Amino acid sequence: MIGGLATDAWDATRNMAESLTAPFRDPVLRLGVTGLSRAGKTVFITSLVANLLDRGRMPQLRAHAEGRILSAWLRPQPDDSVARFAYEDHLAALTAPQPRWPEGTRRISQLRLSLRLAPGGLLGQLRGPRTLHLDIVDYPGEWLLDLGLLSQDYAAWSEAALRKAGHRPGGTAFLDRLKGLDPAAPAGEPVLKALAEAYAAHLRESRAAGFADLAPGRFLLPGDMEGSPALTFAPLPPAPGAPRGSLWREAARRYDAYRRLVVKPFFRDHFARIDRQVVLVDVLGALARGPRAFDDLREAMAGVLSAFNPGRSAPLARLLGQRRVERILFAATKADHLHHSQHPRLAALTEALLREARDRAAFAGARIESMAIAALRTTVEDQARLGGEMIDVVRGRLSDGRQVALHPGDLPEDPARLLAPARAGRDWDGERFAMPDLAPAPLTLRPGEGPPHIRLDRAAEFLIGDRL
Questions:
Q1: According to the model, what pLDDT value does residue 146 have?
Q2: Is 215 found in the same domain as 116?
Q3: Strand, helix or coil for residue 132
Q4: In the predicted model, what is the mean pLDDT of the chain?
Q5: Domain of residue 72, CATH code
Q6: Are the C-beta atoms of 396 and 441 separated by less than 8 Å?
Q7: Which residue in 149, 142, 161 sits closest to 306, CA to CA?
Q8: Which domain holds residue 341?
Q9: What is the distance between the alpha carbons of residues 352 and 367, in angstroms, rounded to a whole number?
Q10: Does the predicted model carry a pTM greater than 0.70?
Q11: In terms of Cα–Cα distance, which of 424, 412, 280 is closest to 349?
Q12: Which PANTHER family match (predicted)?
C-alpha cells in the first residue's frame, strides 16, 4: 500500500511538472494505436507516417488541403527507455520490388513526427509558424487485454478463465491437467511451471483459431520476463481455506505480482498518458472464423475499452494525472478486401459490434467515430460473372503470387443478423465469409505521394485535425 501511495504521488508530481512547463514547450499530442493480433497496427502506423510526410494522397486532411502544413519530419523520440518504432524497416518491406508484410508488434514502441504549421488568426500571425509534435505509441495487442485484470482478483479471473477454456481450442487438454489436482496441496515449482506452460499452449491454440480475449497477454509475448515467477501461474479451481504455501495461494500471489510488476507499470507509464486513440479491429477476419470467434472479439474489445478513462480532460484533472482519452476511432481494417459498395455495411457492423463499449465512452464525453479503412490498399475493384450474373469483386495477389478475384459475401444491411446468432452461440444461416490472406501489391510511388490507402486521410482528420 505504501509503495502504491508513493507511486501515485510520483505520477501526480510528474504530471504537474509537465503541465507547468507546457506553455514554454511545443505542444505534444500522444496518439495510441491499439488493437488485437492481426488487426494491422504496424501497417497502419507505417502508412500513416508515410502519408503525413508525403501528403499527396491525403485530400480529406483539411490542414493539408488548405496548405497549413508547411513541413513534416521525424524527430528523435522523447523517451529513451522505449524502443523506437522501426518505421524505415517497415516501409522498406512494403515498398520492396517483392513487397512483404512487416513483422507484427512484439513490444511497446514509439515514434515522434513533428509538423510545422502555418499560423492562423490574428494572434497566430503575430506568433508565426508553430510546431506540433505527434508521438505515436504502438502497443502489442495481446498486452492490452491485461488491463482488465486490474479489476479482477485471482479467484474471479480463475473462474472466468476456466469457464472459457471449456469452449476453446486447447482448453480441454489444460482442464484434463487439473483433474485430480488438489489446489490446497503444497506448491511445487515443477507443477506450477507445467500448469503455466499448458495454459500458455491453450492460449496459443485459441489465438490461432481466431479468439481474441486471451489474458494474460505476456503468456503469448513474454519478452524478457519469460520464465519468471510472475509468469509462472495458471487458473485453478476454488480452494476455500487453502493454507499458505499451497498451490492455490502461491498461484494467487504470482497473479498479484503479475498485476503489480507488469500490468500496472504498463498502464501508468504508457497507456494512461494517451490523448487520442485508434482501436483497430479485424472484423472481416473474425467473420471468416465463425460466430464464436466473432462474439469473442466483441467481448474482448469491450474489455479493452473498459480500461480507458474517456472524456475531455479538465485542466485540474490533467494536472493531477487523471488524463482522459478525448477521441477514439474504431477502425475496421482490411476494407480493401471488399468492394466499396460494402464499406458502409462494414462500418455499421463495426459500430454494432462495439456498441456497449462505444456507448460507455460516449457517455463519458469522448468523441467517437467508426469507419472502414485500409491503411495499405492491396486490391483493385472489378466485376466478374458468377452463375449468370455480374457481381462486384476485388482482385489481389496471394502470398504465393497467384492473382485472385474475391467476393467473400455480401454483408447484411442489419448487423443484428450476425450479432444475434453469435451472442446465442448459433451458427449463421448458411452465410460464410471466406477471407484469404493477401500479399501487399508492388507499389510505384510518385514524388510527394505516400502508399495507397482507403480513408486513412479521414481517420487522420478525426484524430488530429483539430490540433493542426
A1: 87
A2: no
A3: strand
A4: 86
A5: 3.40.50
A6: yes
A7: 149
A8: 2-139+274-378+443-467
A9: 17
A10: yes
A11: 412
A12: ATPASE, ATPASE-RELATED
